[in-house]
Structure formats: C-alpha cells, structure tokens
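Question (not urgent): is this output format expected?
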Amino acid sequence: MMGNGQAVAHGAVSILNAFATGKGAAMGVGLWTRARVSLQDGGGASFGIVASDPQGSSKLAVMVVEKVLERYGYGGKLHGEVVTSSSIPTAVGLKSSSAAANAVALATSSALGHEPDDDVLVEIGVEASLECGVSLTGAYDDSFASWHGGAVLTDNDRRKVEKVLKVPENIRIIILVPPRQTLTGNLDRRRFAPVKRISELAYIEAGNGHVWDALTLNGLAFSAVLGEDPRPALSAIEAGALGAGLSGKGPAVVAAVEEKDSKRVRQAFEKFDGRIIETEPNYSRARVET
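Got this back:
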C-alpha cells in the first residue's frame, strides 16, 4: 500500500506537575506541531525523519509510527518518511513531545486510511513517550490536553481523566522561555518527594476551580526542587497575572493574564533572560489536514 497523512496537534502548559504524586493537570495552548507521514510497501519498517528541530530526538516519532502500524496489523511491512514542523520550543516544558507524538500518531492513522480512535492514539503516544524516556509519568495530562484542547485534571499513573477544568476563553498566555533546555531523561521522580504534600494541595485547588492558584503553587514548589528562579513568576503576578509558574520541568515560565494586563506582564518578563511568547488557550482537537 501507499498512503500519505498530515495532522496537527497543539502544545500545552502545566497547571500541576505529576512528578510528585502521579496526578497532573495541563491546559492546551495555541502553539502547534504538524506531522506529515508517507508510507510505502516493504522495507522492513525503515523510516526517514525530517524534523523542524534537528536537535530533537527522532526516536519518539519512529516509535509512534511503528506502534500505530503494529496496532493496525502493518508492523514490519511498511517503510516511509516522517516530516515534522513546530512552533513549540523543545525541552523547555511546553509539551513538545506530547504534541509531536499526537501529530505523528494521527498522521500515521490517516496515511493508513483509518478513522482515528482518540483513546488508542493518545495511549500510543503515552507509551512511546515512556519507552523513549521523554516522560517520567507518560504525561497523560499533557497528551490529553494536546489532543482534545482545553484544560484537564488526570491521574497519570492510571491514565484516567478525573475532571475537565473550566478556563476562561478570553485570557492570554504569556511564556518566558530561557535560552537553555532541561531533558526529562535526566530526572528521577524520587527527587520530588519533598513537594508531594504541596502537589496534593495544588491538586485540590485545581479540582475546586482555582486553576491559577494551583498553577502558582505548583510552579513555586517545583522551581524550588529544580533550582529554577521563582522571580519571573512572582514578577508576573506582581504585574497583574492571574497565576504564574514553572511549566513542567521548565525552564519555561507561564503566566495566565487578562488582556488588559498582558502588556505589563510582558514588561515584567522582559527583565529576565529569554524569549517571550504570547498565545492563548487552545480548545481545538488534534486534526487531520487535507
């Protein structure tokens, strides 16, 4: 068989990091990753990768393709090419791996001519992320928010959605991206035991609808454990942000802001080294493009 598929999935930011308790929360944002998959008969499952970030690992994309092919009975029977492009900075906590896994999985399913099964394809991305070492928990919260949009509270260890969180649509998301990266494979979950109780409190806050308080509490706790500077988040809050904190393992810092305060929060972030990205919550699902 021969087939081509193209799909796009969006990035996300952390509300609650799952490293300490296995429970996390994430919110989709307007950054994106696009994948195009071309499949041909034969070749023993050999795949060429053309990535927008040559520093990024191609291992995840290859594993996702192979898992989708195995799921639909084509394991070892096809070869082809995966081409990705993205607006998401890699290895800074903005869920580039989850978005890439989702986009590649959906594009591969489309190339095979299958109607996408959301649960199956998200699960494939989670499994591949764990096996590749780009996630400590499988990042089910990130993957779900990337695939479905919106904000969600999850049990990552059980891969279960616990609550869909309500987030106003008219807010801005302002992100400070320092000029360095943090690789998840270099981290150990045991390191986060000291902030387990704080994570539990942030989980309660998020579940009760206090999403920005959870974002701030989580961000300060994980900044302390990871040795990240809390001043950008605190400066953003002082400038009027609804909440601010470290996203994932960092070093990116995210602030949720009402439109009227976005300029002041940007100015607060400008005091620190890094690139500033302004976007919005994403409520769109991952989708096939024709």
